[in-house]
Amino acid sequence: MEMGSTPAREQLLLQVDRELSPREAARIEAHLGACWSCRARVSKIEKAIADFIDFDSAVLTPHLSSPPNGWQPFDRKLQQVAAKSGRR
Amino acid sequence: MKLFRLKRRVTEGCEAELRADRTFLVPGQETLKLEQKVTVYFEQWREAVYRYLVATFGPSALAEDITQEAFLQLYRCLRAGQSLSNARAWVFRVAHNLALNQIKSQQFITPLDDETWEELRQSYRDAGPSPEQKLIQQEKFDRLRAALSSPTPMERQCLHLRTKGFRYREIAEILDLGTTTVTETLYRVIEKLAKESYE
Predict the structure, then answer these.
(1) Is B186 in contact with A79 (Cβ distance < 8 A)?
(2) B64 CB near a chain A CB, below 8 Å?
């Protein structure tokens, strides 16, 4: 198979994130079928994303500070805004 | 019951266009007030907006107020008859801009302080399935924490918005950037997380 030109590194991320046009995605996919080096780069990108998601769900999200007021004033504020809007 | 049906409908179609009318038609031709509709969106998206603010601008007492204000602005916008094609991205953009003006935490480095981090390390050490796995997990998290200390504010913002499920064009809209800049920024931060150069 013809390897074609090596894609730019950012294009590999776009491929992983399904952000390319179908035509461009097919070209990159064909290249990945032939090029071990680019496949290894894609693996590194996917591993970095997976590691960050693990870290985000196991560490960051559960331990970020909770809202100090427990969202309490929102209903009252919304009613005030609605009442003001209604008087216009 | 009406609220339950509306919540389900919002969950299924949060990307659907929000109509700017002041009532919301639900099955059975009943209507809900715009206030209820915005309350449903608030309950669904507030945690994600709040965590985005804390993770990218730093722990601030203002983050809760800003989150609420973004949804109040959503109400005002819809009440004024404006049409929004992507309400979730709109709310994030408003919250982001409010935070830029109000929080101004230029020194913010990481959402977890040293003390909290050390407690977490300890808990992972105690809870891991085997000594080897505990060590691997700890090393991985140490590496990630170090990597997360180095991103620029824009890198951190793009990373956390992508984690919330936004596509590149949506991130570009929220942060008022070009999609090429978003791509380059995300690539840089992924490279930092991987801690390996491809060269």
Answers:
(1) no
(2) yes
Q: What are the tens digits of pLDDT across the range B37-54? A: 999 999 999 999 999 998
A9 touches chain B (CB under 8 A): yes
Q: How many domains does chain A have?
A: 1
> Which CATH number does B114-194 carry?
1.10.10
Q: What are phi and psi of B198, to 5 degrees?
A: -85, -5
In 3D space, the residue among A62, A25, A55, A20 whose CA is nearest the CA of residue B159 turns out to be: A55
The CATH-assigned architecture of domain B2-102 is Orthogonal Bundle (1.10)
Residue ranges of domains in chain B: 2-102, 114-194
**CA-to-CA distance for B96 and B60, rounded, in angstroms?**
14
First to last CA, chain A: 69
What is the value of pTM for the model shown? 0.80
Q: Assign B163 to helix, strand or coil.
A: helix
Q: What is the C-alpha separation between A65 and B100, in angstroms, rounded?
A: 19
| Surface-to-core class of residue B161, CB atoms within 10 Å of its CB (0-12 exposed, 13-18 middle, 19+ buried) | buried
Q: Judge contact between A6 and A40, C-beta under 8 A.
A: no
